[in-house]
Amino acid sequence: MKLDILAFGAHPDDVELGCSGTIAKEISLGRKVGIIDLTQGELGTRGNAQTRKEEASEGARILGVEVRENLKFADGFFVNDQAHQLEIIKIIRKYRPEIVLCNAIDDRHIDHGKGSKLVSDACFLSGLRKIETEYKGVTQDVWRPKVVYHYIQWKNIEPDFVVDISGFMDKKLASVLAYKTQFYDANSNEPNTPISNKNFLDSVTYRARDLGRLIGVDFAEGFTTERYPAVKYLFDLI
């Protein structure tokens, strides 16, 4: 299956929190989008691997993505090495995305920065012909995505560009709230975490609203890029 966009997250819910408004908008325009979770989030204080799997499936359904896979890397302990890079290369060559979205380049959770660099490195290596991989016994063709963009997570990283997601904020919030074990629930008896309080859940909206304010729209999501964004004409920026 050829995808237009492939979004990676170190944990189930990273993609929903970071870029699900953009994904929902692109899908509405006919783009084919997939999500790859690197880990099962099994070290999370709340919930477990099974509940995270069920929640990820519901988040994918809400967004309408074509496919969602979990690579089952070790939560908290995966590293950016050849073995992990090769697994991601296989995924990139399998789905052949034009655009890859991945974790923030620096963040509170150590897996986010690690996942960001791991995916970015694998995207480059995936274009090298002397790295041979197989999928279901068939040698894969090389593929390098045209661009890699990093969404913003816990830290307020200054974006290189923002995407207007007005009209898709409700779908973003619905996909986030699919993770019932992770986020604010006044009736939950689970331990509190940095993302389980109401302030964090509210921040999903007020960050999007503030980024939208800066560009004169209702809601937006921000991204950083590894190279200069290019436009053909000045009027493309209007």
TrEMBL record:
<dbReference type="GO" id="GO:0016811">
    <property type="term" value="F:hydrolase activity, acting on carbon-nitrogen (but not peptide) bonds, in linear amides"/>
</dbReference>
<dbReference type="Pfam" id="PF02585">
    <property type="entry name" value="PIG-L"/>
</dbReference>
<dbReference type="GO" id="GO:0019213">
    <property type="term" value="F:deacetylase activity"/>
</dbReference>
<dbReference type="InterPro" id="IPR003737">
    <property type="entry name" value="GlcNAc_PI_deacetylase-related"/>
</dbReference>
<protein>
    <submittedName>
        <fullName>Bacillithiol biosynthesis deacetylase BshB1</fullName>
    </submittedName>
</protein>
<dbReference type="InterPro" id="IPR023842">
    <property type="entry name" value="Bacillithiol_biosynth_BshB1"/>
</dbReference>
<dbReference type="GO" id="GO:0071793">
    <property type="term" value="P:bacillithiol biosynthetic process"/>
</dbReference>
<dbReference type="InterPro" id="IPR024078">
    <property type="entry name" value="LmbE-like_dom_sf"/>
</dbReference>
